[in-house]
Specification:
It is built from seven helices and nine strands. Strand 2 and strand 3 (64-73) form a beta hairpin. Strands 1, 2, 3, 4, 5, 6, 7, 8 and 9 form a nine-stranded mixed sheet that branches. The chain is α+β, with helices and mostly antiparallel strands. It has helices at residues 15-32, 79-82, 113-134, 148-153, 181-191, 207-222, 228-239; strands spanning 2-6, 55-61, 64-73, 98-106, 138-144, 159-160, 165-166, 171-178, 198-199. Helix 3 packs antiparallel against helix 5. Helix content is 37%, strand content 21%. The longest helix has 22 residues, at 113-134.
Length: 243
């Protein structure tokens, strides 16, 4: 299983997975957590911040979406600044090194426990890898008080930037979390995952060739170094057009 970066530049390569993600979010937030404000008759959780400015990290397992989260640069419209400013004392942190982290949906009650455990760790490792690729120094967002212990267990230092607010289905508060690369290595060790988790497909690929390239990259990411030369030979053989 890998976590894919999906954004405005490559989303056409992930149309099926994007729909799966929105349905999965609806199951998690509406059907499981009871957030009735997000209920939709089409079973899709889509809000005003699912825009071209959003980047999704989607855990994909053989074509099945197992979890996802949404990241938005703090200089673009985002929930904490534009929808829930009352959660923050003063202005929400902003700047080139600050992104908002929302719609965190790791796993599903319908999945096996081991899959949910793996997805939880992979999404968090992927966030660190994405942060390194974009120069992100901190994340902001709103956390339900019940899930904060899980965030702390995963090594995040969750600093409140506002007082707790009762939002109907629970109590949450705005947070800021600094990115600590050392914690990423601790998470890798806890699930014995040494290779890169994050997969980001390049722009410009058409949908069909994009899916093929994506699968090839996923396989290559899991290859032991000793097998790389042999894998290249096999791929070149497959790519040869018979005369």
């Amino acid at each position: 299983m890998h976590v894919h970066v999906v954004n405005s530049g490559n989303r056409h390569q992930y149309l099926d997975e994007i729909e799966q993600m929105h349905r999965h979010r609806h199951r998690v937030f509406v059907e499981t957590m009871g957030w009735k404000a997000l209920e939709s008759p089409d079973g899709l959780d889509i809000d005003q911040f699912d825009t071209p400015y959003a980047t999704y990290l989607i855990a994909i397992d053989e074509g099945v979406v197992r979890g996802s989260l949404r990241l938005i640069p703090s200089w673009r419209p985002h929930m904490l600044r534009n929808l829930f400013p009352q959660y923050v004392e003063g202005a929400a942190p902003s700047g080139p090194g600050v992104w908002e982290w929302t719609r965190h949906a790791p796993g599903d009650p319908k999945f096996a426990r081991e899959i949910n455990h793996q997805v939880r760790f992979l999404l968090n490792i992927a966030v660190y890898e994405f942060a390194a690729s974009r120069g992100i120094e901190a994340f902001i967002g709103i956390a339900d008080c019940q899930i904060v212990p899980r965030m702390i267990d995963l090594g995040w230092k969750v600093d409140p930037i506002g007082l707790p607010v009762n939002y109907g289905e629970g109590v949450g508060y705005a947070f800021k979390m600094d990115v600590d690369p050392i914690n990423c290595e601790k998470l890798r060790a806890r699930i014995e995952r040494n290779n890169i988790v994050l997969c980001e497909m390049p722009r410009g690929l058409v949908a069909e060739s994009g899916r093929m390239a994506r699968r090839a990259i996923e396989i290559a990411m899991d290859l032991p170094p000793a097998k790389v030369n042999r894998a290249e030979e096999v791929l070149r053989e497959l790519a040869t057009v018979d005369e």
